[in-house]
Write a structure and sequence with these properties.
about 475 residues; 4 strands; 10 helices; elongated; alpha+beta
Length: about 475
């Protein structure tokens, strides 16, 4: 007779000799370049090599932004949903690993029946007590279960990368909305200052009219830019409110719970080092998710191939049966059995061949998606680098234009007071100045937003080493 110990030893020997069907995973090559093209001939004006890459927004040195960003991880509902999905993925790994171990169960029972109709039974009613334990073990000889565990573990890593990507996306959106809000603040301040200048010009015109040196038409003309600036100021307030509402939702609060005091848009635009393109493969969570998806799909090929081979299962039963209850656990009432079974499907009409082909196609799809994700990442970085480089030159040009336009307004207003030009010339220069100031502010806003996009495109402070490796 084979004992339970011998049966377990036999099972362990089969597992040790077993193998895993399907290809072993190796990360495919991805398109890459030795350096970013848009960095050629351009050095970021304020490189920050030593900043805390965890709190990547610290490069902006803004305490209000820092406070808001730290609420994203704990309060943003999209991030919390991704975190729950990650916990679910980890539980599925444990569920898959459980299939590698025997299943043990116990089944106590009692039956009572009349055996009077049975020959030699002696008649009467009898009670039968049983207490049985059963064990079954699906031997993973061909690695089907282990490949399933491998796939689930890779899926958990995908979920972890998705969580990091959700956090980075929410943090990037918040920083973008924050700088848009600060741009609205600066625009409102610019318009209020402009209204002061326009009111000054209007008083000059009114005085000229009172003195009889100009017509009423000049006073009416001077009132137009005042009213136009007031309308722009109202519109800036509407935009600011919308950005504030968006920031509240990103931090997990209803809009009514958040009020952000007015402050000007930052003037400094920090730019982090871009590094080398190959580093993106380890620094972008979306690339890591795509890469781990390939591993999960690769393992499913092994699952499909293992289905070609017999499924081997060991079973064991040990227990007691008898009457009365006090004597059930006597050695004479012991019952046991050991068994082994193998099952093999002989015909499925090509089902398994199709399943293997589908698994291989799923892997090929994941490879193409991975490579496209890498290409898109390179494009985003190149776009943001070129944007920062070009916007830096545009900012210099816009600042020069603002200075020239401001001087032109002063000259034209003096000439108007001297009576050498019409007031329409003053209005024209005022409009050009305000337009130049708005353009300069927009460029500064775009540079800050583009710097956020660059940090996000570079993966923020994330690194692939943070993946939990399917645990």
């Amino acid at each position: 007779m084979i004992s339970l110990v011998q049966g377990a030893a036999l099972a362990l020997a089969l597992l040790a000799a077993g193998c895993k069907m399907g290809p072993h995973y190796a990360r495919p090559d991805a398109p890459a370049a030795p350096a970013f093209k848009e960095l050629a001939g351009w050095k970021p004006s304020t490189p920050r090599d030593g900043f805390d890459r965890g709190a990547w927004w610290s490069v902006y040195d803004d305490t209000r932004l820092d406070s808001l960003e730290r609420q994203v991880v704990v309060s943003n509902q999209n991030v919390l949903a991704a975190e729950a999905a990650y916990r679910q993925a980890k539980a599925l790994v444990r569920e898959a690993r459980a299939s590698l171990f025997p299943t043990l169960s116990v089944a106590p029972g009692v039956t009572r029946g009349n055996a009077s109709g049975m020959s030699g039974s002696g008649g009467g009613t009898r009670t039968q007590y049983t207490a049985e334990g059963t064990a079954s073990w699906d031997l993973d000889v061909w690695g089907r279960i282990r490949r399933q565990v491998e796939s689930q573990a890779a899926a958990a890593e995908v979920s972890a990368a998705d969580l990091a990507n959700a956090q980075l996306s929410a943090q990037g959106s918040l920083a973008t909305d924050y700088f848009e809000l600060r741009s609205a603040d600066s625009l409102a301040r610019l318009l209020r200052d402009t209204l002061v200048a326009y009111d000054h010009a209007l008083r000059i015109t009114q005085n000229q009219y009172d003195a009889g040196t100009v017509s009423r038409a000049d006073v009416l003309a001077a009132q137009v830019p005042v009213q136009s600036a007031q309308a722009l100021l109202v519109a800036a307030g509407v935009a600011r409110a919308q950005y504030e509402h968006a920031i509240a939702v990103l931090t997990g609060h209803p809009p009514s719970d958040l009020t952000i005091p007015e402050a000007p848009l930052a003037t400094a635009v920090p730019v982090v080092p871009a590094g080398v393109p190959s580093a993106l493969l380890e620094r972008r969570p979306d690339i890591a998710a795509a890469e781990r998806t390939m591993k999960a799909e690769n393992a499913l090929i092994g699952v499909a191939i293992a289905a070609y081979y017999p499924d081997i299962t060991l079973t064991a039963v040990f227990g007691f049966a008898g009457d009365p209850l006090a004597n059930v656990f006597n050695a004479a009432n012991r019952v046991w059995s050991l068994g082994a079974a193998a099952s093999e499907t002989l015909f499925q009409g090509g089902y398994q061949t199709a399943a293997v082909a589908a698994a291989r196609a799923g892997y090929d799809n994941a490879v193409a998606t991975y490579r496209q994700t890498v290409l898109s990442a390179f494009q985003q970085v190149e776009d943001d680098l070129s944007g920062l480089r070009i916007l830096q030159r545009q900012a210099e040009a816009e600042d020069a234009l603002v200075s020239a336009a401001r001087r032109a307004v002063d000259v034209m207003l003096n000439e108007y007071q001297a009576g050498t030009v019409a007031y329409t010339s003053v209005i024209t220069e005022q409009e050009q100045l305000l337009s130049a100031q708005q353009a300069a502010l927009t460029v500064r806003q775009n540079r800050l937003v583009d710097s956020v996009a660059l940090i996000q495109a570079l993966g923020g402070g994330w690194d692939a080493k943070e993946l939990p490796l399917g645990k």
